Amino acid sequence: AVGGDHDQTVVIGLAADSGCGKSTFMRRLTSVFGGTAEPSKGGNPDSNTLISDTTTVICLDDYHSLDRNGRKEKGVTALDPRSNDFDLMYEHVKALKDGVSVEKPIYNHATGLLDPPELIKPPKILVIEGLHPMFDPRVRELLDFSIYLDISNEVKFGWKIQRDMAERGHSLGSIKASIEARKPDFEAYIDPQKQYADAVIEVLPTQLIPDDNDGKILRVRLIQKEGVKHFSPSYLFDEGSTISWIPCGRKLTCSYPGIKFSYGPETYYGHEVSVLEMDGQFDKLDELIYVESHLSNLSTKFYGEVTQQMLKNADFPGSNNGTGLFQTIIGLKIRNLFEQIIASRAKTPVGAAQAEREPAIV
Ligand code: ADP
Ligand code: G6P
């Protein structure tokens, strides 16, 4: 095992139900770091792991303790904690964080079986994504930052139909039935994790069209926790104020129903948060620069970086609305958090800390 906590791994947790945009978010995140996450080049083509220069993304389905048959026999879903091995998940995340490689199992989504393990080396940034990254308190404690993608039922349904009907040939009835069957366990075990998240991206139907049932236009809220180490929330115009802004006019093209931004302080599960909201969608993505110029604390390295990222990944789902915008901002925030953690370690290496305490020896 390679070791040493001098180059410890930064660990990010990304929680959401399946089909809620986790892989799209991961693509935006690795793009901010300048790389592309590729499937692991280990032996198993069914590996769920993605690797880029800086980042390794582990899918927590790999910690299923019961395979598809086992779940069927016991009558439990994949969302049920009893289908998952949290002891092993904790041991592995802890080891990787300490710079030690692990042999991680692989849950094969094609066969529903557990395949032989693959070697995971400690990366600079480890992302654990899946149903339960913030479920177990020991794992939660190891996270340097956590995100929850909170997709409302109406919107989730629309996305699932799009994917499972168009791409996987399922019927409308079977999609409805599978969503209904997951609901109790989703509400018991997945949804409550959002109270622990440092950032929540909430996706709701628009309020710009009365009684909209279409689900095409989205109202997206970025809920940012206050007081999180190495994370300071982005804001609109004036930090701490409550703001409502309709940017459509001379500088931004808006067709019906327009775009509305909001910003302000709120309370979320007893925590102080700042919420940035965007309802509606962009007609012309390059005009996003006008909106970007009114947002502050974006953790960009140069003027226009948010817009540049959005244009670069314009073909990803959600690029014309708040889902893409806020995923990009959180990607920049994670880069900034990573750089701050590295910088704070460089300032206080073990030796230097010791020397400060015992100046007489020097
Ligand atoms: P997950 O990794 O959580 O299963 P994906 O990122 O693969 O989710 O997204 C699942 C599907 O949901 C996509 O194929 C797409 O149809 C839809 N989707 C995801 N994100 C968005 C978005 N921001 N806007 C619209 N559709 C989306
Ligand atoms: C979720 C989990 C998967 C699981 C799927 C279906 O999406 O993330 O790991 O394969 O549910 O579960 P099933 O028990 O029907 O195979």
Can you offer a commentary on this structure?
With 362 residues, the chain is an alpha/beta fold. It has two domains: 8-149, Rossmann fold (3-Layer(aba) Sandwich), CATH 3.40.50; 198-307 and 315-342, no CATH class. Helix content is 32%, strand content 23%. The chain has helices at 22-32, 68-74, 86-97, 137-142, 153-166, 172-190, 288-292, 305-312, 322-347, 350-357, and strands at 10-15, 38-39, 50-51, 55-59, 102-107, 114-120, 125-130, 145-151, 199-205, 218-225, 235-236, 243-245, 259-268, 271-280, 295-296. Strands 2-3-4-7-1-8-9-10-14-13-12 form an eleven-stranded mixed beta sheet. The chain has a two-stranded antiparallel ribbon with strand order 5-6. It is globular, with a radius of gyration of 21 Å. Bound molecules: adenosine-5'-diphosphate and 6-O-phosphono-alpha-D-glucopyranose (G6P).
Task: Please sum up the structure shown.
With 362 residues, this protein is an alpha/beta fold. The chain has helices spanning 22-32, 68-74, 86-97, 137-142, 153-166, 172-190, 288-292, 305-312, 322-347, 350-357; strands at 10-15, 38-39, 50-51, 55-59, 102-107, 114-120, 125-130, 145-151, 199-205, 218-225, 235-236, 243-245, 259-268, 271-280, 295-296.
